[in-house]
Specification:
Elements lengths: L10 H11 L8 H17 L7 E5 L7 H4 L4 E6 L2 H10 L4 E4 L12 E7 L8 H11 E12 L1 H4 L18 H8 L3 E9 L8 H5 L2 H9 L4 H9 L5 E8 L1
Parallel strand pairs: 1-2, 1-4, 2-3, 4-5
Antiparallel strand pairs: 5-7, 6-7
Length: 243
């Protein structure tokens, strides 16, 4: 009997895809605004221990977020797509951008105080190698900020994961936790964006009567506490420190 095997996408095929994917500089989606705001808050917390950190955005796309991080510390953008990097250099000439493989950056050990991984790990085939590379280029006691779609949410949402990129390996919060804890100590684990799934617990969380009652009683914050405690949001966000 023939066994179906998932087709592997070569690094070159991925680069060509992202050359096209990042061809046009589009405005931020509402979800991205929320994630960027969360990352800014975490960078501000990091500045309590490192006043002006060196930062790398690993998988920065067309670089649209990198100037924001640059307000918090000296920031470098890193992206697989050489075309996207050229676009970023043209649009943001005051920031350094590099191109290459995020699992093998060729950067020196301990090059940065902070690695930002913003919706990247789910598009990496070898996620262990990716996090090992993050750890290698972070200074001792430096920080990792990582966001990624929440598999638990998307398994309970009509249509599933909406990204449709060459590699889609979205993770459960427990799976991401296990991967990150191999190299880092997790300081904060949160979910980002209020969940509006279609099945399971999301039917209860989105019930109009339930939500209306909480609003009437001034207790809507309880719903957000449930979502955060149980990691039910659309995206996972961890702040971790290299040990």
């Amino acid at each position: 009997m023939e066994i179906n095997k998932e087709k592997k996408t070569s690094l070159k095929e991925q680069e060509l895809f992202y050359d096209n994917y990042w061809a046009n500089l589009n405005s931020f989606s509402s979800y991205k605004v929320i994630r960027v705001t969360k990352i800014m808050k975490l960078l501000n917390e990091i500045r309590k221990s490192i006043s002006y950190p060196t930062i790398i955005d690993l998988g920065c796309g067309d670089g649209r977020s990198v100037p924001i991080w640059n307000l918090f510390g000296k920031t470098t953008g890193f992206e697989l797509s050489t075309s996207a990097v050229e676009t970023a250099r043209q649009n943001f000439p005051f920031v350094k951008f590099l191109s290459g493989d995020a699992t093998d950056t060729r950067l020196p050990d301990g090059s940065f105080d902070v690695v930002i991984s913003h919706e990247v790990i789910e598009h990496i085939e070898n996620q262990e190698a990716y996090l090992s590379e993050c750890a290698r280029i972070i200074n001792q006691n430096g920080f990792l900020i990582i966001t990624t779609p929440n598999k638990y949410y998307f398994e309970r949402t009509k249509g599933g994961n909406y990204s449709n990129q060459p590699i889609e390996k979205i993770l459960l919060p427990s799976e991401l936790k296990g991967l990150v804890e191999n190299k880092f100590k997790i300081l904060k684990s949160e979910t980002v964006v209020v969940a509006k799934g279609d099945s399971g617990i999301y039917k209860f969380l989105n019930n109009r009567f339930f939500v209306g009652t909480l609003n009437t009683l001034g207790l809507y914050f309880i719903l957000n506490e449930i979502i955060q405690k149980q990691m039910l949001g659309v995206h996972i966000c961890f702040l971790a420190q290299k040990q």
